[in-house]
Amino acid sequence: MATARRRRARPRPRRRPVAAVRRVTRRIRRLALPPAPPFERRQMTVEMVERLFWRAGFGPSQGDRDRWTGRTLGETVDALLATPQGPLAGPAPARNDRPASPGLDPKADDADLVLTWLDRMIRVPNPLPERLAFFWHRHWATSRADVSPVQLMIRQNELFRRHADLGANPGADFRTLAHEVGEDPAMLRFLTGEANVKGRPNENYARELMELFCLGPLDPAGTPNYTEDDVRELARAMSGWRVDTANPDDPKSYFTASRWDGGVKTVLGQAGAFGLRDATDVVLSHPAHPGVLLRKLWSELVTGPPDDATLQDLVATYTATGRRIAPVLRKILTHPQLFDSLGEPSMIKPPIVYVAGAMRGMGVGVTDRVPYDRLNEMGQQPYFPPNVSGWEYGLAWLTTNTAIARWRFASYLVNRADVAPQDVPGETPDAAVDRAHAACGRPWLSAQSRVQILDYATRARVDTAGRRRARQLLLRAMIIAGPDGQVM
Description:
Shape: globular
Largest sheet: 2 strands, antiparallel
Structural class: mainly alpha
Number of helices: 21
Number of strands: 4
């Protein structure tokens, strides 16, 4: 009988000792790149300081550049958010074109009303609250052209500033702001809320609250966010409010129960005997609200829309914190997209930012009504939005007429007696350009623009003191009014 062939046993794989496996794992981990740190821990460059202080204010001072360059982005943003406005820096404005009444009086006329706010933007140590207050003015657009007495607008301005000074009011939230704006005398007068009474609902404010201030007419899929019935029912809930201007220096709004429709209303599918604040809460509970508001706040500071993940994160933060502004604003100001294209800024300065920033950079204050007139020509006077939608942004700011107005403002600014340049015989073209740049506060200037400006400085005749002064004045005007001066 044949012997059965025996199978050769296969060798078993050798097992690495546990200690050896751990050593290999540690070696792989050492070789792997560490995770990137959060962007907010990025050290600030001069260019980043420039970008942040223009987008969140009216441009940096040299002190801002010196203080924050090398610090982290998070530290810088936290300081802007946590620092109360405090007293205004520098001397109070003196109107040298009106010797009989040299100071500014916002109650005297509309020019002083506008210039008083511009003065704050120029002299405030922390620019973020004033910039945010102007955003709220743009969002809840109310025009002095339709509101009297002027004290109503002054009171509303103080309301916006109170909700924008996040250092003094860190818990500021949109819900409280919406409640107070709905009862604000200026808004009641502007959108005829005083005429909203039981039996004759006035729909103006109810419509704008949904269409412009909180929801928008359509969701991203094109579905209406509300109906005409919702507008009528919301108006019923907001009836009963009146304005008392018997003492113009202390205007008040007050509620009269007999003028209020106390019946049950159905707003956005919710039913109840709503009053103004209850009905506002119903609107704010709509799922479209967070995205609408946060996209608008984002576009005030950042070019290009947020991606889906960023928007979802902002919405989650806004909702989880009870609609607080500081947490979402911090996320926007520390987002990498805000610092895109540092070498070529892509956001056009709105006129008020352009004017306030140039005056801060030059170190000058309000001395006459010229900035008021130039702002009007540029298309943006505070307190005078063109309609309830506020101002357009972007390329709408640069037309043939508004560009000329910007040049006229720059010419006015550099020719002011309080910043007249000294004559420097023998000054080289490079030194003349450097002196002009420093006199303007060292705003962003591209390499290409510097080449062109230097070319003019080289070719200009400087054989007399008058011609050297003219060269210096034109260099400053070119820096402020040239293409680079329009962007941030």
